[in-house]
Structure formats: structure tokens, C-alpha cells
């Protein structure tokens, strides 16, 4: 998408070699979050980004949004465990 829209905007610099954002949901954790604070809906779906930067394909970056709110600890734990498992 960035490559296509870059052309439309007159921008040619490549930002990523490869990039993907994985979206998913945990029904039980989502329910727990919304019961604790209905405004936590903004955290759904959960996402983890995996990417390499243009010109540096040998380094893969993995990241996710730091959470806030009443259910932040449980969500942070789940996301960090998923990333840690994927990296090992």
C-alpha cells in the first residue's frame, strides 16, 4: 500500500523491504477487557507488526502497541509472550 500511495503522492523512497501486520482476537481476553472498561474496544483487534527496513533485510523487527487501561497487564503479557515464542 505504501508503495502504491507513494507513487500517487510523488514519493519514491522505499520504507520497508517487507512488512506485515497480523491482526487477531482472543475472545476471552477481549470480553474481560470490555467488561472492565468498554472504551478498551479501541485495542481490538490485537496487532503485531513484523517488518524489515529497506536496505536492511537481514534485521527483522517485531513490535506491538503498548497498552493502557484496566486490562493492560493481561494484554501486555499475552502480546509479549506471543512475540517471545515467535523469536525462539
UniProtKB/TrEMBL annotation:
Q: Name one Pfam family in it.
A: DUF302
Q: Where is the DUF302 domain?
A: 17-64
Q: Which InterPro entries match?
A: DUF302, TT1751-like_sf
Q: Which Gene3D superfamilies match?
A: TT1751-like domain
Query: This chain belongs to which protein, by name?
Result: DUF302 domain-containing protein
Q: Which organism is it from?
A: bioreactor metagenome
